[in-house]
Amino acid sequence: MENIVKVQDAIVNNSEVEIPYKITVRLLNKKHLKAVAKLEFAGFIIADIKIIESNNRTIVEYPSKEFVTSEGETKKTSVCFPSNKNTSRFFNKAILTAYTDACFEQNGQHFVSLAA
Question: How many CB atoms neighbour CB 94 within 10 A?
Fold first, then answer.
């Protein structure tokens, strides 16, 4: 299903621009990793967005990679992520809504506590 997000275009006199986006969810139902989502918009695809359940909350984790420092310490760094709080809130809510919809479609019910 394709959705539309309206964003302020700072380059063109602060006018609104509509950008279509699509979210697909693949349910996994592992211990903490409940699903993986893909977000498509404006010619970009962000894959491997994790939907994790921990401490009675369901959260969105954007793609990241692990690397080893010169000291031998393993660290994690984000590959891509929303650049501001409003964008983060918007897409996190959209991704979690798509997740609950997928759970409902599969099970006819959902027991998901969405993170605020």
Answer: 17
